[in-house]
Amino acid sequence: KVFQISSRRREEGVPAPCGREGVVNRAQPKHPRLRLAPALYEELRNQVLRRDGWRCQVCRSRQNLHVHHKQLRSQQGEDEESNLITLCASCHGKLHHSSTLR
């Protein structure tokens, strides 16, 4: 048999392991994330670059600029100016490989 594990509270009549609620039973349901249309995201990206003076906010470089989500989209971060920061490719890569800039 194949069992589906609900992300909502324990289903009626389905016992939790050992009679207790486990980690799986406490998981929150995922909500679909909306992405901005490409043209709107590009406009937001340019707004962030202008706000940050077209410079990496860590090393002040003007080369190979990226716009980074401070709170990652995978962690429910939003596509909002307040959640975005300009980083150069080097600092952006370092951030994703360590927690020092987070």
Structure described in brief:
By secondary structure, the protein is an alpha+beta fold.
Structure commentary:
The chain is an alpha+beta fold and 102 residues long. It folds into two domains: 1-30, no CATH class; 32-97, 3-Layer(aba) Sandwich (His-Me finger endonuclease fold), CATH 3.40.1800. It contains three helices and two strands, in the order H-H-E-E-H. A two-stranded antiparallel ribbon has the order 1-2. The longest helix has 14 residues, at 38-51.
Output the keywords.
flat; alpha+beta; 102 residues; 3 helices
Percent helix range: 25-40%
Shape descriptor reads flat
The assigned CATH architecture of the largest domain is 3-Layer(aba) Sandwich
The CATH topology of the largest domain is what?
His-Me finger endonuclease fold
Largest sheet: 2 strands, antiparallel
Highest CATH level, the class of the largest domain: Alpha Beta
Give the neighbour order of strands across the main sheet.
1-2
Q: Give the strand tally.
A: 2
Could you outline the blueprint of secondary structure elements for this entry?
Layout: H1 23-26, H2 38-51, E1 65-69, E2 84-88, H3 89-97
